[in-house]
Each structure stands twice: as structure tokens, then as C-alpha cells.
Design goal:
By secondary structure, the chain is α/β, with parallel strands linked by helices. Helix content is 35%, strand content 21%. The radius of gyration is 19 Å and the shape is globular.
Length: 215
């Protein structure tokens, strides 16, 4: 009887954990779909977004692979599975990278995010962005991206630099030094041009006022 009681208790705990995990996953997917609607004016249907946006598929896969990576025996399978995701989506996110909420990749293709990269909440990347390293050491060697950061198409952020909250990196810029919060980094190598914009009255977004972010 005692054994049956322990089995029943264990089953109940497992079932509760499964239900909680399922609810958390569904909430995260709903939040990501809402982020896509907010970030991409081409989004007209959650269903189409759900099945046809490789950027979201890569992000969802990374969340599971990141948890797997944190297990001592999970690093090899997580790395191998991440390469399958790369092949399917065109997005290479190392399973060791840390990524916050409401991360969005528009026109996902050619994205590279290194192992020790850290990405905050509400970050948006366009195609061909690299968050790369400059060292062969095992220590921190990839960028730290703050909250509410936008990185334009083709930009390269290289090394253990920090891009501050609310900053923007222009298309094709090469960033090798820290970018202050609420500023724009443009050019090769990137220089700081001026404050990125003004606070949007609806939801804390930024209305970009400098066309350099797109070119």
C-alpha cells in the first residue's frame, strides 16, 4: 500500500508539472505571436505566422535546446540538434546563448548568435546579423545586448561588447566597442551618431528618427 501511495503521489506531481509546463509554453507562444504582430506589419494571421516564420521556429527550438545544454549530459545533443535547426531555418543560435522574452527575428536568414551571447527582452534582429566572438578562449567572448535593442540587416556585433538598453545598430554596421543606451551605432567601424529616437506613446517602443538605421 505504501508503495502504491508513493507511486500515486509521484504520478500526481509529474502530471502537475506537465500541465504547468504546457501552460507556460502556450503563454510564451501567444506572447511571441503578439510580438510578431507588433513588430512586423506584414503579419495578418497568427496561423500563417505560426507555420511560416522560421525566426520564431528557431527561437522556440533554442528555448528547449538551451535547457538541454544546461544539463551535464546535454551539451553534445543540444549542439547537434542546433545544427539541424540551422539547416531548417537559416538561423544559427548556439544553445549556450541566453535570450530574453519577446525576441523577434524579421526575415530570418543568416543569423549567427554565439555561445556566450546574452540578449535582453524586446530585442529585434533583421537578416544577416552576427553576434560573434573575437577570442579563442572559453570565457565571455560574445556581445551582451540590452533590452529594447534593434539591430539592422547585415550588422555585425563582435566581441564581449555591450549594446545598451534602447540602442539601435544600423544596417551593415560593425560594432567592436560598447554602444551607450538610447543611441544609434552606424558605419564600419561603428560610431555613435545621436539618440535613437523618442519614446512611443503606445507601449514603450521607439520611433526611429534617423534613416541611417536602415542603410
Amino acid at each position: 500500500m505504501a508503495l502504491l501511495t508513493r507511486i500515486a503521489a509521484g504520478t500526481a506531481v509529474t502530471a502537475a508539472a506537465f500541465v504547468a509546463t504546457r501552460r507556460a509554453v502556450r503563454a510564451a507562444v501567444r506572447e511571441d505571436l503578439e510580438t510578431a504582430r507588433r513588430r512586423d506589419p506584414a503579419v495578418h494571421s497568427d496561423l500563417v505566422t505560426l507555420v511560416s516564420y522560421p525566426g520564431l521556429h528557431a527561437i522556440w527550438a533554442h528555448r528547449g535546446l538551451h535547457k538541454l545544454w544546461q544539463r551535464p549530459s546535454g551539451k553534445v545533443p543540444a549542439r547537434l540538434l542546433s545544427q539541424i535547426v540551422r539547416t531548417l531555418t537559416g538561423v544559427e543560435i548556439h544553445p549556450g546563448a541566453t535570450i530574453g522574452r519577446r525576441f523577434f527575428i524579421d526575415h530570418a536568414n543568416g543569423i549567427v548568435v554565439g555561445e556566450t551571447a546574452e540578449i535582453g527582452d524586446d530585442v529585434m534582429l533583421y537578416q544577416q546579423v552576427t553576434l560573434g566572438g573575437t577570442s579563442m578562449e572559453q570565457e565571455k567572448r560574445h556581445p551582451t545586448i540590452g533590452n529594447d535593442v534593434l539591430i539592422g540587416a547585415g550588422a555585425k556585433v563582435i566581441g564581449p561588447v555591450t549594446v545598451g538598453d534602447g540602442a539601435s545598430v544600423g544596417a551593415n554596421a560593425v560594432v567592436v566597442k560598447d554602444v551607450p543606451p538610447d543611441s544609434i551605432a552606424v558605419g564600419v567601424p561603428a560610431t555613435i551618431k545621436r539618440p535613437a529616437g523618442v519614446a512611443h506613446p503606445h507601449g514603450g517602443e521607439y520611433e526611429l528618427v534617423d534613416p541611417a538605421i536602415w542603410i
